[in-house]
Backbone:
């Protein structure tokens, strides 16, 4: 009995709770991810909360910040998720980090009326000393949006996106270390934005 209690105590101290990190997309009507960079452990969830206008969370590479990653596998993309100015419920899209040693790079793919990425709307998970967030953002703002999407695979995350009021559908983006994502209501929300005339 004493042995079982000791094992249970050891297991409970060894179990680490995964964190839920909230990142605001378009906070205060700005072209920002807030915070713009996070450090996450394996198992942590990053929940992107869309707060205004019409933005996306689109995976890229360090070398081509404003281009959807296509090699060695296609990057994940929330799609455009519009939010009305008077919205009382904010949609979310989430990823779960699988590998904390692999940096992940993201941008907003919106280009109306200007490229949000080239205005600095980029985000990083676990940037390194040699590939910093500041360098990534500078690359984006330097106009590196037409370069081909290449670079190392983003190994290290999985996730479940969900728009408020809809049931998430889980899908996977597989590759050599990939992001698992869940489906969002981005298509429906984009159509709804066109119908109500939300400013992109």
Residues:
């Amino acid at each position: 009995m004493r042995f079982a209690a000791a094992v249970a105590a050891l297991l409970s101290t060894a179990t680490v709770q995964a964190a839920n990190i909230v990142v605001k997309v378009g906070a205060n009507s700005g072209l920002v991810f807030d915070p713009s960079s996070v450090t996450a452990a394996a198992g942590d969830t990053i929940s992107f909360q869309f707060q205004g206008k019409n933005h996306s969370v689109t995976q890229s590479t360090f070398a081509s910040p404003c281009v959807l990653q296509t090699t060695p596998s296609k990057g994940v993309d929330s799609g455009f998720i519009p939010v009305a100015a008077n919205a009382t419920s904010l949609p979310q899209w989430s990823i779960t980090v699988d590998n904390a040693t692999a940096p992940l790079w993201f941008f907003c793919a919106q280009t109306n009326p200007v490229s949000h990425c080239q205005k600095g709307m980029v985000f990083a998970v676990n940037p390194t000393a040699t590939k910093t967030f500041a360098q990534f953002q500078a690359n984006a703002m330097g106009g590196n949006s037409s370069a081909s999407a290449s670079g190392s695979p983003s190994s290290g995350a999985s996730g479940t996106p969900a728009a408020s009021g809809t049931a998430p559908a889980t899908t996977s983006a597989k590759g050599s270390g990939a992001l698992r994502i869940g489906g969002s209501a981005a298509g429906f929300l984009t159509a709804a934005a066109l119908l109500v005339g939300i400013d992109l």
Notes: The first helix runs from residue 2 to 14. The domain at 20-141 is CATH 2.60.40.420 (Immunoglobulin-like). Residues 145-200 have pLDDT under 50 and may be disordered. The first strand starts at residue 20 and ends at 25.
